[in-house]
């Protein structure tokens, strides 16, 4: 659970320093490059773990089918909830704003 | 870019086949340290956008309703499907909380389980590809706000041009703020939901 707070803290500290102009402008130009290097190292490490784990390699086809289903269902439900929120909550909120 | 990402993962996988499992623990440290660096720089990237508060003000209540709807729908949908496929609630919920950010969500899940990490990577990668294909249809037949939903966290970058092209300027701003909020939620919600199973 402590990792969540650490991740959040790092996001906030990074965002705050950058918004306040503490981060040198030179770094902004290299930001994309730095993020890409971090990302590639992490993805490589993730790939290594997958390769070392026989269970994952053996279950690749099953995982692919499940992944497609998960993607389809999460898209469908996210559209549905946004539509529901817009039809119900937005009307309620805008009514209150008009009244106040 | 997506091809490069897939390429790096495949390269790691192939090398991993020849590395003894005794080195598995080493990748834990590699993932944790790398993730801390990445998240700090993601924060810096978000903070450099000085118009962020202006954009939020222009968006009104939808600014919070759309990301809430996308987050709730993605997690709920994944839990329902996960239940049918026999996955524990915390695992399927964590997959849904990736919001199409396949690289980060799978990396966060990797120390927990390699199998789940692969599932998260593939699910969120497929979601991004499907989103690109579905957005024009949703914008035309369902609504502009709903067209932001399929892209999830990618609504601020990869799928933003597609949302912008098929909707209007207001929806494009909403798309950006939705992607921003969801991107900030991924590193919080994924480990939080995963940990619900441990508690």
From TrEMBL, chain A:
The UniProt keyword set, sorted, is: Membrane, Transmembrane, Transmembrane helix
- Write out the transmembrane intervals: 6-22, 34-52, 64-85
Q: What is this protein called?
A: DUF340 domain-containing protein
Protein species of origin: Fusibacter ferrireducens
UniProtKB/TrEMBL annotation, chain B:
Q: Which organism is it from?
A: Fusibacter ferrireducens
Taxonomic lineage of this organism? Answer: Bacteria, Bacillati, Bacillota, Clostridia, Eubacteriales
Q: Which InterPro entries match?
A: LysO
Source domain of life is Bacteria
Transmembrane region positions?
5-24, 59-87, 99-122, 129-153, 173-194
Name it: Lysine exporter LysO family protein
For this UniProt record, give its keywords in alphabetical order, as a comma-separated list.
Answer: Membrane, Transmembrane, Transmembrane helix
Coiled-coil ranges (or none):
none
């Amino acid at each position: 659970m402590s990792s969540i707070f650490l991740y959040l803290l790092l996001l906030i500290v990074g965002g705050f320093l950058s918004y306040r102009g503490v981060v040198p402008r030179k770094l902004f130009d290299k930001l994309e490059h730095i993020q890409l290097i971090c990302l590639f190292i992490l993805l490589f490490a993730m790939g290594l773990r997958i390769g070392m784990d026989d269970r994952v390699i053996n279950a690749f086809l099953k995982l692919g089918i499940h992944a497609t289903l998960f993607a389809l269902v999460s898209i469908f439900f996210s559209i549905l909830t946004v539509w529901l929120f817009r039809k119900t909550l937005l009307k309620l909120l805008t009514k209150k704003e008009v009244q106040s | 870019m997506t091809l490069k990402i897939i390429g790096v993962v495949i390269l790691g996988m192939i090398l991993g086949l020849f590395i003894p499992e005794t080195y598995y623990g080493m990748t834990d440290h590699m993932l944790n340290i790398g993730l801390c660096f990445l998240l700090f720089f993601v924060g810096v990237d978000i903070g450099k956008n000085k118009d962020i508060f202006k954009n939020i003000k222009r968006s009104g209540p939808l600014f919070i309703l759309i990301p809430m709807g996308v987050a709730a729908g993605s997690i709920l949908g994944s839990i329902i499907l996960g239940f049918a496929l026999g996955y524990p609630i915390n695992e399927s919920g964590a997959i849904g909380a990736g919001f199409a950010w396949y690289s980060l969500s799978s990396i966060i899940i990797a120390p927990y389980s390699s199998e789940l990490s692969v599932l998260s990577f593939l699910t969120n990668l497929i979601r991004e590809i499907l989103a690109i294909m579905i957005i024009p249809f949703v914008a035309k037949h369902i609504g502009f706000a709903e067209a932001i939903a399929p892209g999830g966290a990618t609504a601020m970058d990869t799928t933003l041009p597609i949302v912008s092209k098929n909707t209007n300027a207001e929806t494009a701003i909403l798309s950006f703020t939705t992607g921003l909020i969801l991107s900030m939620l991924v590193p919080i919600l994924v480990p939080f939901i995963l940990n619900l199973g441990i508690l």
